[in-house]
Specification:
Layout lengths: L1 E3 L4 E3 L23 E8 L2 E2 L3 E4 L10 H5 L2 E3 L2 E5 L5 E4 L1 H14 L7 H14 L11 E10 L12 E10 L7 E5 L17 H16 L4 E3 L16 E6 L2 E4 L10 H13 L3 E3 L4 H9 L3 E8 L3 E10 L2 E4 L7 H13 L10 E4 L1
Parallel strand pairs: 2-5, 11-12, 11-17, 14-15
Antiparallel strand pairs: 1-2, 3-4, 3-5, 3-10, 6-9, 7-8, 7-9, 8-19, 9-10, 13-14, 13-16, 16-17, 17-18
The structure holds 2-OXO-4-methylpentanoic acid.
């Protein structure tokens, strides 16, 4: 049945897939909820948004997204507390970032009112897909693609903004083993590394698959010029704990300005943990590991939350990291999840209730 909210046309699904879903056994990003949000850009403006049943769609084979990769995305999560209230975490950060990403790929900025109305309407319709309990969430994937049917190598004049939703548990089920990049690069100065551009992820798949053959789940990327500085892990920003001090790389045009990253920097300050935001050399981390000062390495991101690194390798030298009792990674993960699930005070106003 079609109805209209303030600005969104809503067509609800006649049936729901929810009863066929085993919520205790979810493979990240494989199942999607009953509805999706769609808004097309045409004639120089965003047209009326729609929510429709989740379904496949037809796009012309000449659409520029297929040829030139004009595509950006976001990763966000919705959480439910024990009283059934739904929350987003710092959603304005995702809105701002998708528009920054779009700008870099010569795509039009999305409208803030449509973004928030779309999310809220979608989450109300698919609210039963958000399960309460720490560790459960609904992963939200806003994305924009160039749909104009034309293959000249220039920015499109037509786009589609969408949001799809997938029930999620954690992205990594166990600590990750990572390889530090020596040859391949994820991004370069003046490039698109800071953007959540689809191509940034595609470019990592081949070197990551080589690392996976050697038993590493992820690559920690280093700077493209010298491979001396540690940057990010592609699906996560990375923190190193040397003795009781945390270190993470500064954001730049090569590194994603992660929402979880900036939240952890703030939480570290709240908890009285020193966190240095500065360039980190591979050598200093290897030396710290050899001397027993490297206590923890962990990756952080929306999908990954906080994922401990159990081993890293560089130049054929493998370092295993033993679990520490007073883990900062665990502390940040718990503190963050408590805020996200409305189990603790939200002093920074990060929770956004969906009413
Ligand atoms: C996220 O954490 O939302 C990400 O973008 C990682 C994703 C590529 C799985």
């Amino acid at each position: 049945m079609a109805s209209t909210t303030d600005s969104i046309t809503v067509e609800t699904s006649k049936t729901s897939k929810i009863n066929s879903v085993d919520f205790s056994n979810l493979d990240f990003g494989r199942l999607f909820t009953d509805h999706m949000f769609v808004c097309d850009y045409k004639d120089g403006k965003w047209q009326n948004p729609k929510i429709t049943p989740y379904q496949a769609m037809t796009i012309d084979p000449s659409a520029r997204v297929f040829h030139y990769g004009q595509a950006v995305f976001e990763g966000m999560k919705a959480y439910k507390d024990e009283d059934g209230k739904t929350f987003l975490f710092r959603p304005k950060q995702n809105f701002d970032r998708i528009n920054k990403s779009s700008e870099r790929l010569a795509m039009p900025a999305f409208r803030e009112d449509y973004f928030f109305e779309g999310l809220e309407a979608l989450l109300k319709l698919d609210k039963d897909w958000i399960k309460p309990g720490v560790g459960n969430s609904l992963y939200l994937r806003p994305f924009v693609i160039a749909t104009e049917p034309a293959i000249s190598a220039s920015p499109a004049e037509e786009y589609r903004f969408m949001i799809i939703c997938s029930p999620a548990k954690s992205y990594y089920n166990s600590p990750v083993r990572v390889l530090i990049a020596e040859q391949y690069s994820r991004s370069a100065d003046g490039g698109v590394g800071f953007a959540k551009a689809a191509g940034n992820y595609a470019a990592q798949f081949y070197p990551t698959s080589l690392a996976q053959k050697d038993g590493f789940q992820q690559v920690i990327w280093t700077d493209a010029n010298t491979h001396k500085y540690l940057e990010e892990a592609g699906t996560m920003n990375v923190f190193f704990r040397v003795n009781d001090k945390l270190i993470t790389a500064p954001i730049s045009d090569r590194i994603l300005d992660g929402v979880t990253r900036k939240s952890i920097i703030q939480l570290a300050s709240d908890l009285g943990i020193t966190c240095e935001v500065r360039q980190i050399t591979v050598e200093e981390i290897k030396t710290a590991a050899r001397e027993g000062h490297l206590k923890e390495v962990f990756g952080v991101g929306t999908a990954a939350v906080v994922s401990p690194v159990s081993a890293f390798q560089h130049a054929d030298e493998l370092f295993e990291l033993a679990e520490v009792e007073d883990s900062y990674g665990k502390l940040f993960k718990q503190t963050l999840l408590n805020i996200q699930h409305n189990l603790s005070e939200d002093v920074h106003g990060w929770r956004h209730e969906v009413k």
